[in-house]
């Protein structure tokens, strides 16, 4: 029992609204607790998401990977996200902690390390937030093939560009850090710690889920997913 509780505590420990998953305390083939896999505009070939051992992880020795097959469709968006918010007190002898499953995100900051592993039609991936369901959410992503960073909203399954930055130089097979913050209708996006996008948008005003994203045949690895909610 203590082993299970210890593993959970490292996955999601409430520290002033902070939620972090580094995947190192999850076995290969597993998924983070309460996360679900979905797709936008899917054609019946759902991507495979799971924790995997990786000697070249950004930190530790495990990552969350998304893998697609050769039947991937160009306009399919692959989602892996957490949609439930709750607090659960845990007591382990003299230690007491509060676990936080953060799914209902309105304002705050989100960051993840990401590596584009492969993909012929698409590469890279990104972060989703204020997720209502698999067809409605905000999204920011970096694509090494296109060399651009973009901010979108996806509404009723249709993706619309809010802002784009072109001619960036982060290539495939290299770890990069993607970050986003939202306060009210103001959205800021950073790549490797440098703010590149700042825009206002009011498409989604209510709290929603948070998660990760890739497109089409993009196979990618994610590490150190951190959410700071306000």
Give the fraction of residues assigned to helices: under 10%
Instruction: Indicate the mean pLDDT.
Output: 85
**Total number of domains:** 1
Looking at how many chains there are and whether they match, the oligomeric state comes to: single chain
Output the CATH homologous superfamily: Exo-inulinase, domain 1
User: Class in CATH?
Assistant: Mainly Beta
Sheet bearing the most strands, described? 8 strands, antiparallel
How many strand segments?
Answer: 17
What is the level-2 CATH architecture name? Sandwich
Q: Which class of secondary structure composition applies to the elements? A: mainly beta
Strand content: over 45%
The CATH topology:
Jelly Rolls
Protein name: 3-keto-disaccharide hydrolase domain-containing protein
Organism: Fimbriimonas ginsengisoli
